[in-house]
Write a structure and sequence with these properties.
CATH superfamily of the largest domain: Spore Coat Polysaccharide Biosynthesis Protein SpsA, Chain A
Strand content: 15-25%
Shape: globular
Number of domains: 2
Bound molecules: uridine 5'-triphosphate
Number of helices: 15
Structural class: alpha/beta
Largest sheet: 7 strands, mixed
Strand order of the largest sheet: 4-3-2-7-11-8-14
Helix content: 25-40%
CATH class of the largest domain: Alpha Beta
Number of strands: 18
Length: 453
């Protein structure tokens, strides 16, 4: 019975509200929420177990990184070719995590529907789908797309794909799966009521990808389709080079279970996690995990020591996910303080400071025996849309997208005025060389908006 279940979780205050027939508590909502909760896990979290512990920084050193210059070296071709072979054999899937709440952007829709491109205002989902379509055409092999949603945005996400005919992808090659939810709690460990009369829950973080893949059956689907490697990325980066063959090939040929792309940090203070080696294992140290000695550490030449900023792009072997999800190993839970909209004892709207629990995908890195870290150039591959204004906003991202495409054309000899805004469809070119190969180079002077379809 519901009340009994709540009491077992130490949540007698909600059981009492149900018993008293309180008007602002919904039995149906609470039942639905409890259904989703992994009760033993929640009990442990409230008791302070399974939580993330900061590593001792004394054991930390920079991780080896393959420099960005490698991509133009002759040795890189062997790895790129291997990546291309895997793609043309249908061994690679793309997986985008899109279950986040997008609270900083402050929109009431899945982030993937936001129009991000500089000229056509294509949505993130359209842009990613077109890249996958272009790759599937290039390698004459459908590349399946797995989309992680959350309870809050699953229906809207699917509707968006359906309304746009899956942006040209075959619906049989697109798989949606829903991540898990966890109840937020007060600092004393009590569940918080939502304004809808249920429990206030939050998605379990992008680390929830692993368990959600398993629970949804998508992990089996990956296996059935002969997929060996998963290209993991976040929905909010329009510059992501999906299934980049060099990255796929490096990760696979070097026998890694999970690999990462990094960019050079802009400054010591840039708040991104860095890839480091802790007791011989590669991992991401969050900005908050670093003390000032680490943050400001320099090498022999006075250059930043921990410069390798993670951009949340990973290759993950399918059998590594199987191993992790098939064992008792769990990703650690990070606690974050947040403002929670709730109701007071008379059912009136109010807010409290509470705690949400989340897991992060990069905490799987140290569980990998082998990991490859590849540096890429920020201006080519990372322009995230996180904030309404200022850094990492729609505005900065559109400028970066336009600048990249402008640079491709300029390299090909096109003259482009300063005020021009440029957008090249992924269906026209995934990289500069595709433009020439397909005869898509525009007239030699460009002034104003330019879209190459
Ligand atoms: P962020 O940490 O940037 O969160 O997620 P967010 O939800 O997009 O934005 P804020 O922090 O609320 O403003 C990075 C990526 O991880 C996904 C997001 O959708 C985004 O692609 N994510 C995050 C999930 O899929 N699930 C989660 O529980 C959290």
């Amino acid at each position: 019975m519901l009340e009994e279940k709540l009491r077992q979780l130490g949540q007698g205050h909600i059981a009492r509200l149900l018993e008293s027939g309180s008007a602002y508590v919904s039995r149906r909502e609470i039942a639905r929420d409890l259904e989703e909760i992994d009760a033993p896990l929640v009990r442990e979290l409230i008791a302070g177990r399974f939580l993330y512990e900061e590593p001792a920084v004394t054991a930390v050193k920079p991780a080896p990184v393959i420099p960005a210059s490698f991509s133009s070296s002759p040795e890189s071709s062997r790895f790129r070719r291997h990546g291309e072979t895997l793609l043309s054999q249908g061994r690679v899937a793309a997986l985008v995590v899109a279950g986040g709440q997008g609270s900083r952007l402050g929109i009431d829709a899945p982030k993937g529907v936001v129009g991000v491109t500089p000229v056509r205002r294509k949505s993130l989902f359209q842009l990613h789908a077109e890249k996958i379509l272009a790759l599937s055409n290039k390698y004459a092999q459908p590349i399946p797309l797995f989309v992680m949603t959350s309870r809050a945005n699953d229906a809207d996400t699917k509707d968006f794909f359906t309304a746009h005919s899956f942006f040209g992808l075959n619906p049989d090659d697109v798989f949606f799966f829903v991540q898990g939810m966890l109840p937020s709690i007060t600092p004393e460990g009590s569940f918080v009521l939502s304004r809808e009369g249920g429990l206030f829950m939050n998605p379990d973080g992008h680390g929830g990808t692993l368990s959600a893949l398993k629970k949804s059956g998508c992990l089996d689907t990956l296996k059935e389709r002969g997929i060996e490697e998963i290209f993991y990325f976040q929905v909010d980066n329009p510059l992501v080079s999906i299934c980049d063959p060099l990255f796929v090939g490096l990760h696979s040929l070097k026998g890694a279970q999970m690999s990462s792309k990094v960019v050079r940090k802009k400054s010591f203070e840039e708040k991104v996690g860095v890839i480091a080696e802790v007791e011989g294992r590669t991992r991401v140290l969050e900005y908050s995990d670093m003390n000032d000695d680490m943050r400001y550490a320099v090498d022999g030449e006075g250059e930043m020591l921990y410069w390798a900023g993670s951009i949340a792009i990973h290759m993950i072997r399918r059998d590594f996910v199987e191993t992790l999800t098939g064992s008792a190993v769990r990703l650690p839970f990070h606690k974050a303080l947040k403002t929670i909209p709730t109701v007071d004892s008379r059912g009136r709207p109010t807010e409290i400071q509470g705690i949400k629990f989340e897991t992060f995908i990069f905490d799987a890195l140290p569980m990998a025996e082998k990991s490859v870290t590849l540096e890429v150039l920020r201006e080519r591959e990372f322009a995230p849309v996180k904030n309404r204004t200022g850094e990492d906003s729609l505005e900065t991202s559109r400028i970066m997208q336009s600048n990249l495409h402008r640079s491709w054309l300029e390299d090909l000899g096109v003259n482009i005025s300063d005020r021009s805004i440029v957008e090249i469809s992924p269906l026209a070119a995934l990289e500069k060389d595709d433009l020439r190969a397909r005869g898509k180079i525009p007239p030699m002077e460009v002034d104003g908006e330019l879209y190459i379809p």
